[in-house]
């Protein structure tokens, strides 16, 4: 059946309030069982044409990522948004990713997160007030000796603190380069919010576990003594990814017994004990490349989010690709982005309404962008 598409209306490009909201503002969400959702999504995407770019994170489910104009990790997608000429960006990801896209795009570009409830458990483990308190204490105990390094999986506020205090952002693929950059400037680093990426990177660079100290924001002085702070090279924020932390050493042993000849590849957000047992460690992009470049007949057990693992299995039927843990585990917050929310976002655009806009204030944008630009210099 041929569908006639209506002309694209003039959309409201007035500035959004300077804030970055959380919450769900869907008053007329189409039901998930609506059989026309795929057709509605395709029609809306065609009608919006080059006014819109849709960015899909690797961990998104198939029903929405099929409409993505680009796939990638959070930073790669934010870069794509910044380079593009679209006036509107729909980010199929989580809150901090949409914030980063807003920081890196031109002021007129409006970034939409289809469900404002799509957050990140790791990012939420570092509250800006806690980090400000930590930084003040460190400046009292080891003044001028610490450089902050912040993982991409963090709020815009914490990226801004990092930029303001002379630090840089990193991804899982360039964390080692970022650490080297930090140690060239000061004798110790504060790495947040993921303790596992920080620890695994530090050890891979030749540091010992004793060189790392864990800062617990819920305990006085991070649960450390002043002497422990002074002797640490890497202060690691007590945060983690709820998906990657679930992998245990016994999962590695079980899959090797179940699947002889399997290669175990895990994300560096996994526990230190799991990383030590793996055959390969790779960022999301690194995992994808490793499997793509492996020969037919290869066997892989992958320690990362299940949507990506399942997609790799479908895209490489000549290889055996299994989830490291036999218990299914999606990223629950990422999974909030579904077809009804995507359709709802696009159809509102067609009617001249920008819903669920993510807008970061000018001051936060300035400092966070500086931290992100330092990351590019490190690369």
CATH architecture label name of the largest domain: 3-Layer(aba) Sandwich
Low-confidence stretches: 1-24
Shape: globular
Q: What is the number of domains?
A: 3
Q: What is the arithmetic mean of pLDDT?
A: 90
Q: How would you spell out the order of helices and strands?
A: HEHEHEHEHHEHEHEHEHEHEHEHEHEHEH
Number of helices: 16
Beta content comes to 5-15%
Q: Specify Rg, calculated over alpha carbons.
A: 21 Å
Biggest sheet architecture:
5 strands, mixed
The side-by-side strand order for the widest beta sheet comes to 2-1-3-4-14
By DSSP, the count of extended strands is 14
Task: Supply the CATH class of the largest domain.
Answer: Alpha Beta
Report what the structure shows.
This protein has helices at 37-48, 62-65, 74-83, 95-104, 121-124, 128-141, 156-164, 175-183, 195-204, 226-231, 249-258, 272-277, 284-292, 306-315, 339-350, 362-378; strands at 52-57, 70-72, 88-92, 110-112, 146-151, 168-170, 188-192, 212-215, 234-237, 263-266, 280-281, 299-303, 320-323, 357-358. With 379 residues, the chain is an alpha/beta fold. The protein has three domains: 37-119 and 336-362, Rossmann fold; 123-241, Rossmann fold (3-Layer(aba) Sandwich), CATH 3.40.50; 244-323, 3-Layer(aba) Sandwich (Rossmann fold), CATH 3.40.50.10800. Strands 2-1-3-4-14 form a five-stranded mixed sheet, with helices on both faces. Strands 6-5-7-9-8 form a five-stranded parallel sheet, with helices on both faces. Mean pLDDT is 90; it is low at 1-24.
């Amino acid at each position: 059946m041929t569908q006639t598409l209506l002309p694209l209306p003039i959309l409201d490009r007035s500035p959004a309030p300077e804030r970055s909201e959380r919450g769900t503002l869907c008053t007329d969400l189409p039901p998930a069982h609506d059989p026309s959702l795929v057709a509605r999504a395709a029609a809306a995407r065609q009608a919006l044409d080059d006014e819109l770019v849709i960015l899909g994170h690797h961990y998104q489910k198939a029903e929405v990522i099929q409409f993505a104009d680009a796939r990638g990790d959070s930073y790669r997608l934010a870069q794509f948004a910044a380079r593009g000429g679209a006036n509107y960006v729909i980010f199929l990801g989580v809150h901090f990713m949409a914030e980063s896209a807003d920081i890196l795009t031109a002021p007129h570009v409006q970034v939409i997160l289809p469900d404002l409830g799509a957050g990140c458990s790791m990012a939420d483990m570092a509250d800006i007030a806690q980090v400000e308190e930590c930084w003040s204490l460190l400046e009292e105990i080891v003044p001028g000796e610490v450089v902050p390094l912040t993982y991409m999986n963090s709020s815009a506020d914490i990226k801004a603190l990092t930029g303001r205090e002379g630090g840089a952002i990193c991804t899982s693929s360039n964390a080692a380069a970022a650490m080297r950059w930090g140690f060239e400037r000061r004798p110790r680093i504060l790495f947040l919010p993921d303790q596992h990426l920080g620890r695994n990177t530090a050890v891979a660079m030749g540091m010992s576990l004793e060189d790392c100290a864990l800062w617990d924001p819920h305990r006085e002085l991070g649960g450390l003594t002043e002497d422990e702070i002074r002797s640490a090279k890497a202060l690691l924020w007590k945060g983690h990814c709820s998906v990657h932390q679930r992998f245990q050493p016994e999962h590695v042993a079980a899959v090797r017994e179940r699947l002889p000849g399997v290669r175990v590849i895990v994300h560096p957000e996994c526990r230190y004990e799991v990383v030590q047992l793996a055959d390969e460690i790779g960022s999301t992009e690194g995992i994808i490349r490793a499997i793509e470049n492996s020969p037919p007949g290869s066997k892989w057990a992958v320690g990362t989010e299940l949507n990506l693992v399942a997609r790799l299995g479908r895209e490489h039927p000549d290889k055996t690709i299994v989830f490291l843990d036999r218990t299914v585990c999606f990223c629950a917050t990422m999974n909030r982005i579904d077809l009804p929310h995507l359709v709802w976002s696009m159809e509102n655009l067609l009617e001249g309404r920008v819903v669920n806009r993510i807008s970061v204030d000018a001051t936060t944008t300035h400092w966070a962008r500086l931290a992100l630009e330092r990351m590019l210099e490190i690369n």
